[in-house]
Amino acid sequence: MMSGGPSDATHRKRRRRRGPKGSGVDGPSIPRAVTTNGAGPEEEEVVEGKAMELDAGMSAAEVGGVVGSHLSETRFDQCPVSPLSLKAIKDAGYEKMTQVQEATLPIILQGEDVLAKAKTGTGKTVAFLLPAIELLSTLPRSPSINLLVICPTRELANQVAAEARKLLKYHRSLGVQVVIGGTKLPQEQRSMQSNPCQILVATPGRLKDHLENTPGFPNRIKGVKVLVLDEADRLLDMGFRRDIEKIIAFIPKERQTLLFSATVPEEVRQISHVAMKRGYKFINTVKEGDEETHSQVSQMYMVAPLDLHFSILYNVLKKHITEDADYKVIVFCTTAMVTKLVAEVLFQLKLNIREIHSRKSQSARTKVSDEFRKSKGLILVSSDVSARGVDYPDVTLVIQVGLPADREQYIHRLGRTGRKGKDGLGLLLLAPWETYFLNSVQDLSVSQAVVPTIDSSIQTGVKDALGRVETKSKESAYQAWLGYYNSNKAISRDKSRLVRLAEEFSQSMGLAIPPAIPKLILRKMGLNNVPGLRSV
Ligand SMILES: Nc1ncnc2c1ncn2[C@@H]1O[C@H](COP(=O)(O)OP(=O)(O)OP(=O)(O)O)[C@@H](O)[C@H]1O
Fold it and tell me: What are the residue boundaries of the DEAD-box RNA helicase Q domain, all occurrences included (predicted)?
């Protein structure tokens, strides 16, 4: 077991394990479950035992275990958990606790604020729900909300609520409700009034709506005893931070706060006081020197000019489908409209695809998400709405096309495969000018794969498919692509280069000239009067 005082975690030299970059795994095939870091399991440090909880605040508690195993040796029935919860846990098929559950349960039950970091797919949801439910079950019945869970996406909120319902199976006096954007506010208001639940799972925007527009809601939320920020780093980054601060202002200070994520960058530790008491515990179940990604997931990257990306994507998918009849793939794209375009191209290529992103109606998103959860033999083309938290079992391959927003997003997207200790594959497809991103993941075992030879039938197939996709979709994708890369500091610094790259993207869709963009949008992007861009 490793231990250390406050400075230990930061000062101890990290044992970086680099992949054999440029090893050039041959052909388009992505080898399955290969340990790409060159370190055999015998080189891993096997750390026995339970979590060691250290100092408050900036300290780290680290636990380890058998490599690749997300489960601990502790059974739920060995813990101080109520018989009602135990019965539900048994029905759910859980017997042993995962590492993060074992590490955090006693500390949360003691009433501490906890910031917890644990790899993707290792049961963080149960880790915060179970002790919170234990606490709630001791409270007198009231119409107050006692547990508030905030999630960055609607899919994740629905999933957290589903897990809560499993655990509440025998707690007849406790209920859960979800409030998310994209659904009818009055409907949510009515159901809250007719059946006030003690547990509320919400996305930030909709929660703010209720605080401002639902009579009695601010009072109900004053009953919050436990606040959970799921995917804490995402919720505390600049995109959500102001909403979260506003929401927290409505919640009593005397509460317990739990922040969970697979990634906790240093900045998040520094600003976690936004939500947590001084003296909170930081529980890190990713042991020192270990990677934040799973060793049983093979990570590859491929570098090729943009005009080959559709063909490479098609080629890799076809090969994967041939090799694995139970294939289940997620293709992540940079923006909603680029996602739509890629989905349309792959659909034209007769692949079995579904599409999910923020421009789809919530009912369509829920339908696709439910279908993908249950299915095999399916490819989900997705924007970052599926990047975090969503638990689709048995995903065989995750492909990321173009730059991920940052290192954290790369890790979370990859984490849709290799869940619960299973094998998985990841491929990052970059253009040559995007390879600077690899610096930010150099401590992860990401190996270079050789670009496959694209035969003429693939090329022709892709060209024909692109020809059948509506021009409107291409125009929207071009505009979205430009917006996405323009918001990337490293790329937007040189505007004429940005315009050139956008033109390459436009050509890769088979367009002879880049589409014109409404003046207002160009102005919003700060790109008006940039030579090479056409406006309408
Ligand atoms: N003790 C357990 N034993 C077996 N399965 C479990 C256990 N706890 C949770 N699970 C299951 O493990 C899966 C992954 O859990 P969960 O989605 O909470 O992971 P996560 O760590 O939050 O992942 P992410 O970082 O991607 O959000 C779920 O299907 C969940 O039902």
Answer: 74-102
- Give residue-wise pLDDT tens across range 68-91: 468 999 999 999 999 999 999 999
The whole domain housing 408 covers 297-468
The rounded distance, in Å, linking the Cα atoms of 187 and 363 is 14
Residue 119 is assigned to a structural domain of this protein: yes
Atom of ligand 1 nearest to the CA of 96: 1
Distance 423 CA to ligand 1 centre (A): 15
Q: Kindly report the backbone phi and psi dihedral angles of residue 401, in degrees, each rounded to the nearest multiple of 5, phi listed first.
A: -100, 120
Cβ contacts of 289 within 8 Å, gap of 6 or more: 14, 15, 17, 45
The number of the ligand 1 atom at minimal distance from the alpha carbon of 101 is 1
Backbone torsions φ then ψ of 117, nearest 5 degrees: -120, 125
Structure tokens at 166: 């499993």
Please write down the HEC assignment for all residues of 155-166: HHHHHHHHHHHH
3-state secondary structure of 17: coil
Asked whether 434 and 304 are in contact (CB, 8 A), the reply is no
For residue 121 and ligand 1, the question of a CB distance below 6 A is answered with: yes
Phi (first) and psi of residue 300, to 5 degrees: -125, 155
Same domain, 195 and 125: yes
| Segments in 333-381 forming alpha helices (H) | 336-348, 362-374
